[in-house]
Amino acid sequence: MKDAAVFLDFTSEVLEFLIKNHRLPETNKKALHDSLIEKKGIFIKLVHKESGKSLGTEGHITADRAVYLNIRDILMQLVKGKDLSGTTHEDYQIVLSFPSPIKSCKDTTTVKLGEQGVFFRYMELFSTVLPQEPKENGWDLAETLDVLIKRAGLNPTLFDWDNALFFTFTTDKITS
Question: Which of 63, 88, 139, 141 makes a 20 to 30 Å CA pair with 149?
């Protein structure tokens, strides 16, 4: 991906500052690389290299804000309430996933697990499964849809499928 090093470097710098100072750094927008100012959706996953334990995955599917703002907000969500003392950004593998624009999916049986992510919306509730998640977790399509519904806070057995909206997307993935 174009400017992969720029995205990873910025993410690493913000993560390091958060670990050391327990707050976000000041960011001079004028000093940022142009690619960080572009409006992009992004998902971030942090994995402790030694233990293999994930701090989680958070993100924004929409491209409605500058990506540097999304990176800052997502990192804050990922580290909030976690004891990262004694670690640095180098102790974590950073996985950045940049979603393509979403496409309506009328028939969920056409979802290509492992290639496409799924964005789910039901009224004001929504959730996302990234393309790599089904493979990483051993989910088939039915399990993937159940995960989406549960992540949105709904019960899959009582779910009203007629009013649900599903969308697919792909991602460009960068790993540190």
Answer: 63
Rg (the chain; Cα; Å): 17
Other Cβ atoms within 10 Å of 131 Cβ, number: 21
**Which tokens sit at 39?**
């409006």
CA–CA gap between residue 151 and residue 62 (Å, rounded): 18
Closest CA to 59 of 151, 161, 138, 139: 151
- Tokens 């995205």 label which residue? 7
Residues 6 or more apart whose CB falls under 8 angstroms from that of 34 comprise none
- 45-79 pLDDT, tens digit per residue, is 999 999 999 998 999 898 899 999 999 999 999 99
Domains belonging to the chain, first-starting first, are 4-99 (3.30.700.20), 103-170 (3.30.1490.150)
pTM: 0.88
Over the stretch 93-150, which tens digit does the pLDDT of each residue have? Answer: 999 999 999 999 999 999 999 999 999 998 888 999 999 999 999 999 999 999 999 9
Task: Round to whole Å and give the CA distance between 140 and 126.
Answer: 20
Is the four-CA dihedral 75, 81, 84, 85 of positive or negative sign?
A: positive
